[in-house]
Design a protein that fits this description.
Chain A is built from 22 helices and 8 strands. Chain A is mostly helical and 532 residues long. In chain A, β5 (390-392), α18 and β6 form a beta-alpha-beta unit. The mean pLDDT of chain A is 96. With 322 residues, chain B is mostly helical. Residues 1-5 of chain B have low confidence and may be disordered. Classes of the chains: A mainly alpha (532), B mainly alpha (322). Chains A and B meet through α2, α3, α6, α8 and α9 of A and α4, α8, α11, α12 and α13 of B.
C-alpha cells in the first residue's frame, strides 16, 4: 500500500488508502513525551475490512462494499443526485451561498492546511489535508454535474470507491472551521465536509448511527438521545437534587414546567447521566441567585442537543422547532442553553433563520447568565476554594462560531485567586477543537476512539499539557481543565482516560462546578477530584 | 474599405470589447452572488463590524445578556480597518502563509499599480478631451511620468510575483498535485502579457508617450494606428492585444475571487445580523420555508411535493412506530 494518498489513488484499489504510524507523530510534552510507549492506533478487525468500505485506520459509517455493478451504479447515481440538489436554491437555501463561494474560489494555495489539528497531528498525512476532501468534491461537481473542462478544474475518476471514500472522509473533520478562519478567500472546508454529510444523509440515507438512529431520531422518539423519557428524567433529577443538597448543605429543588418563568434552562441531557454535578450546580446557582427559571419535562425540552447540526438540515430544523415549541408552550421569556457548545450554536445562531413569529423566542448562553450572577454580588464566592491551576478550553461552537469569549473568563476571574489561571495557546477564537467536535465524542464503533485519541484529540491534549508545563505532575498535584461543553467534556474524559492523565493530577469539569465550589454558603469540596 | 475593420483599429476594438466583457462579467457575478437566497447564519469570529472592544478578542453581541433588548451596535469603520489592509496588503495570507505572501503580495500589488497606471492614463485622456489646456505643459508631463513609473513598477512586481507563484506551484508537491492545467496557464498568461507590456516600455516607449496617446485615443474614440514601423508598432499592438485578452479572461475564471471575496466576508463570515421577532428577516424566512424539498432519503421523502415547513413539522421517529 502506498501511504501517499493523492487525488488519483483516492479512486483506486481496495482496502485502506493510508495508515498513520507512531513515527509519523510528534511526541507530546512531558510527562507524556515517550512516544515509544504510546500504543499505535488499534487495528481494524479483518471482518470489518472485508465487509465495509475502508479509507484509513478506522471506519465510522459501515458503508457496505457493493456486491455488483448495479449496486455500484446505485451508489454513484444517488450521490450525483444529492450533489445536484445541493446546488438547488429550493433544496439547499440554507447553505447555498457559502457552498458556492467555497466551491468556486479556492486557489488551492493550501494556506488552510497548517490550521487543521488533524492534518498536523497526523504528520501531515495528505488524506487529512483540509482541502483534500474539498478538492475531490469540487472535481466531481465540475466534471460530472457542470460538465466543465478538466483543464480548468482538474480531473478525477468517479467510481463507487470515490463516492464511498469521500463520504467516509467527511467524518474525518471536526467541523471546527479553524481552516475557514485562515482562508484568504473565505473558503470553508468544514462547511464542505458537512455538505457531503448532508448529501449522504438527506439523499442516500448514510450517516452515523450515533448521530441519527441513536441521536436525533431517538431524541424525537423519547425526548433524549440518552434514551431518557420524561419520567426517568424526573426521577434522575430528584437524585441530582438530593445529591447536590447533601454535598453543598443547601436544599436544592429543580423547578419543572413552571409556566411564565423568565428562563427555560435547557441542558444537554447527557450531563444528567454522566456529569450530574454540572446540572445540580446550575440548579443550586440559579436558585441561590433568585432567578425565575424552570426546566421542561416535556420531550425533547430537557435535552438541548441537536445533532442535525452535524449532518442533516432537516433533522436540525425538526429538533429546533420542537425546542422552540416547548418554550412557547411554557411562555418563558427566554431559553438559556446550559454548558453544551453545539446546542448553543444550533438554537441560537443557526435556528435564528428558521424560527419566526411566536416561535422566535430569545435564546441566550448560560455563560452570560453566570457572568451576570458573578457580577451581581448576590452570591458570595471564596476564591481560595479554587486555589489550584485551571486552564480553560474554548468550545469552538461557543467561541469561534458565536464570539462568546469573555463571560467565561470573567467568571473565572471572579471565583479564582489571582495567578492560578493558565490560558492555553492559542485560545479564544483561535482555539483548537477538543477533538470530539461534530459528534466524534459519541462515536464508539470499531476502533474509532483509538483513532480519535491519536489524531483529533491530540492537539488539545498537547495544549493542556503545555498550559500546565510549569506545574508539578502527580496525583496529588491537582490541575483543572475547565471545559464548559458536554461534548468537549466527553472528549476530555476519553483522552485523559486513554493517557491515564488523572494519575498526573489532571481533572476536567465544567465552569458552573467551579462557581459552586467557591460559593461561601455551600459546603466546601464541590469539586471532589474523583475521576468520573 | 472604410467600413471594414483595419489592423490599426484592432487593438482599440479589442480593448473596448475586453473592458465591456470585464464590466459585464463582474456585474453579472456580483448580481449572481447578491441574488442567492438568504442562508442560515454561518458567521465566523472575529466579526469586524462589532464594536472595537469586542473585535479585539473576537467577541460578539451575544456576549451581552439579553442582547435583543439593546440597540445593535455595528462599526463600518471597523470593517474598513480590516478590509483596506486586507485588499491592499493581503493581511490574511501574510498572517497564515508568509511564504506564499512573499510571492502573492508583489503579484497583487503589481496588479493594483498596473490598474492605477491605466486608470490614470485614461483619466488624462478624458481630461485632455474635455479641457485640452488642463494637461498642457508641466501637469501633462507629470502625469506621463507617473503613468510610466507606476506602470513599469506594476508590471515588474506582478511579473516577479507571478513567476514566484509559478515556481512554487511547480516545485511544491502539495500545490502541484492539486493544480489544474489552467492554474499554470493563468500565471504564464500574466507573465507573457505583462512581460510584453514591460518590453514595450523599455524598447519602444521609454517615455510612455505611446501609451498616453493610445489611452487618449481610446477615450476619444479616435482609432488612430500606432505610429512607427516594425517592432515599434508591433510591440505596443501585441501588448494591447494580450492585455485586452487578459482583462476579458480574468472575470470568467476563478480569478474573479475579488468579487466573491466581498460576499465571502460580508454575506457569510461577518453576516451576524440576528433575526429579531417581527423584524425584516421573518418574511424572507417564511418564503424560503415554503419552498418544495426533493431530498429522497427515507426520513424526508420530499419528492418535490412537501415544503420545508411540512418536513420540519414531521416526526419520522414517531411515525416509524405507527
Amino acid at each position: 500500500m502506498n501511504r501517499r494518498v493523492n487525488l488519483k489513488t483516492f479512486s483506486q484499489g481496495d482496502g485502506p488508502l493510508t495508515h498513520v504510524l507512531p513515527e509519523d507523530q510528534l511526541p507530546l510534552p512531558p510527562p507524556f513525551d515517550k512516544i515509544e510507549e504510546e500504543p499505535p492506533i488499534a487495528p481494524l478487525a479483518d471482518d470489518a475490512l472485508e465487509k465495509f468500505v475502508a479509507l484509513d485506520d478506522t471506519i465510522t459509517l459501515n458503508i457496505p462494499k457493493p456486491k455488483n455493478a448495479a449496486e455500484e451504479a446505485k451508489l454513484i447515481n444517488a450521490f450525483l443526485s444529492g450533489l445536484r440538489k445541493l446546488f438547488s436554491a429550493a433544496d439547499n437555501w440554507t447553505f447555498l451561498q457559502p457552498l458556492l463561494i467555497s466551491m468556486e474560489h479556492c486557489a488551492r494555495c493550501q494556506t488552510c492546511s497548517e490550521s487543521c489539528p488533524i492534518f498536523v497531528e497526523s504528520g501531515e498525512n495528505e488524506l487529512y489535508r483540509p482541502n483534500f476532501r474539498s478538492e475531490v468534491l469540487r472535481r466531481i461537481y465540475y466534471k460530472y454535474i457542470k460538465k466543465a473542462s478538466t483543464w480548468t478544474h482538474g480531473d478525477i475518476e468517479l467510481n463507487w470507491r470515490t463516492v464511498a471514500r469521500l463520504i467516509e472522509l467527511s467524518y474525518r473533520c471536526n467541523l471546527c472551521r479553524r481552516c475557514a478562519q485562515t482562508c484568504p478567500m473565505g473558503v470553508d472546508n468544514g462547511l464542505l465536509a458537512r455538505e457531503i454529510r448532508k448529501i449522504a444523509s438527506q439523499e442516500m440515507g448514510i450517516r452515523l448511527k450515533e448521530l441519527h438512529e441513536d441521536g436525533s431520531m431517538l431524541q424525537m422518539k423519547v425526548g433524549s438521545s440518552t434514551g431518557m423519557n420524561s419520567l426517568v428524567l424526573k426521577d434522575n433529577m430528584e437524585f441530582v437534587d438530593e445529591d447536590t443538597s447533601e454535598k453543598t448543605g443547601i436544599e436544592v429543588v429543580t423547578p419543572f414546567d413552571k409556566k411564565g418563568a423568565d428562563i427555560l434552562l435547557m441542558h444537554n441531557a447527557g450531563e444528567i447521566m454522566a456529569w450530574p454535578e454540572n446540572v445540580g450546580a446550575f440548579s443550586l446557582l440559579f436558585n441561590q441567585a433568585g432567578l425565575n427559571w424552570t426546566m421542561s419535562s416535556e420531550a425533547p425540552g430537557y435535552d438541548n442537543i441537536n445533532y442535525g447540526v452535524f449532518y442533516d438540515d432537516v433533522q436540525f430544523a425538526r429538533v429546533a422547532l420542537q425546542h422552540a415549541q416547548i418554550a412557547k408552550k411554557l411562555g418563558v421569556k427566554k431559553i438559556v442553553l446550559g454548558e453544551c457548545g453545539h446546542a448553543h450554536k444550533a438554537l441560537t445562531v443557526i435556528a435564528d433563520r428558521v424560527l419566526t413569529g411566536d416561535m422566535n423566542i430569545p435564546r441566550e448562553s448560560a455563560l452570560t447568565v453566570m457572568r451576570d450572577i458573578a457580577r451581581s454580588g448576590k452570591i458570595k464566592f471564596d476564591k481560595s476554594r479554587n486555589d489550584f491551576p485551571v486552564t480553560l478550553h474554548d468550545p469552538c461552537n461557543v467561541v469561534r462560531l458565536m464570539g462568546i469569549v469573555t463571560p467565561q473568563r470573567e467568571v473565572l476571574n471572579a471565583i479564582m485567586p489571582e495567578g492560578r489561571f493558565r490560558e492555553m495557546a492559542p485560545h479564544g477564537v483561535k482555539n483548537y477543537c477538543c477533538g470530539g467536535g461534530s459528534g466524534f465524542a459519541i462515536v464508539g464503533g470499531h476502533n474509532f476512539p483509538s483513532w480519535r485519541h491519536h489524531l483529533t484529540g491530540r492537539r488539545k491534549f498537547r495544549q493542556i499539557l503545555e498550559a500546565f508545563a510549569d506545574e508539578e505532575w502527580g496525583p496529588e498535584h491537582h490541575k483543572y481543565v475547565c471545559a464548559p461543553c458536554s461534548n468537549c467534556k466527553g472528549q476530555m474524559r476519553d483522552i485523559m482516560n486513554f493517557y491515564k492523565a488523572n494519575e498526573q493530577g489532571l481533572y476536567y469539569g465544567g465552569l458552573v462546578e467551579l462557581m459552586v465550589n467557591a460559593m461561601v454558603d455551600a459546603n466546601p469540596g464541590y469539586v471532589d477530584w474523583e475521576w468520573h | 474599405m472604410d467600413e471594414v475593420t483595419t489592423v490599426a483599429e484592432l487593438p482599440y476594438l479589442l480593448a473596448y470589447v475586453a473592458l465591456a466583457v470585464f464590466v459585464i462579467a463582474v456585474i453579472a457575478r456580483a448580481v449572481m452572488w447578491a441574488r442567492l437566497p438568504m442562508h442560515v447564519r454561518w458567521e465566523l469570529y472575529p466579526v469586524a463590524h462589532e464594536p472595537p472592544e469586542k473585535v479585539e478578542h473576537g467577541g460578539s453581541f451575544m456576549e451581552d445578556s439579553e442582547w435583543w433588548k439593546k440597540p445593535r451596535e455595528t462599526s463600518a469603520t471597523g470593517e474598513l480597518k480590516v478590509m483596506i489592509p486586507e485588499i491592499l496588503f493581503l493581511v490574511a495570507v501574510k498572517e497564515h502563509n508568509p511564504t506564499l505572501w512573499t510571492r502573492t503580495f508583489p503579484f497583487h500589488f503589481g496588479l493594483y499599480l498596473t490598474i492605477g497606471a491605466t486608470a490614470l492614463a485614461l483619466l488624462a485622456g478624458v481630461i485632455s478631451a474635455v479641457a485640452p489646456s488642463a494637461l498642457a505643459g508641466g501637469a501633462g508631463e507629470l502625469v506621463r511620468w507617473l503613468v510610466l513609473v507606476i506602470g513599469v513598477a506594476g508590471f515588474v512586481l506582478a511579473i516577479i510575483g507571478a513567476l514566484g507563484l509559478l515556481h512554487r506551484r511547480l516545485s511544491v508537491r502539495s500545490l502541484r498535485s492539486y493544480s489544474a492545467p489552467a492554474d499554470f496557464f493563468n500565471l504564464v498568461f500574466f507573465v507573457v502579457a505583462f512581460g510584453c507590456g514591460l518590453l514595450t516600455f523599455f524598447l519602444v516607449d521609454p517615455d510612455a508617450s505611446k501609451a498616453m496617446a493610445f489611452a487618449s485615443n481610446l477615450v476619444s474614440f479616435e482609432l488612430v494606428a500606432v505610429p512607427g514601423n516594425g517592432m515599434e508598432a508591433l510591440l505596443p499592438t501585441a501588448s494591447v492585444v494580450l492585455l485586452s485578452l487578459l482583462v476579458a479572461y480574468v472575470p470568467l475564471t476563478h480569478m474573479s475571487h475579488f468579487v466573491g471575496k466581498y460576499f465571502a466576508y460580508h454575506a457569510i463570515r461577518w453576516n451576524d445580523e440576528p433575526n429579531l421577532a417581527g423584524g425584516p428577516q421573518e418574511a424572507k424566512i417564511q418564503a424560503l420555508l415554503s419552498q418544495k424539498v426533493s431530498w429522497s432519503a427515507d426520513h424526508i421523502k420530499g419528492e418535490g411535493k412537501k415544503t420545508w415547513v411540512d418536513v420540519a413539522l414531521e416526526n419520522p421517529a414517531v411515525e416509524e412506530d405507527k
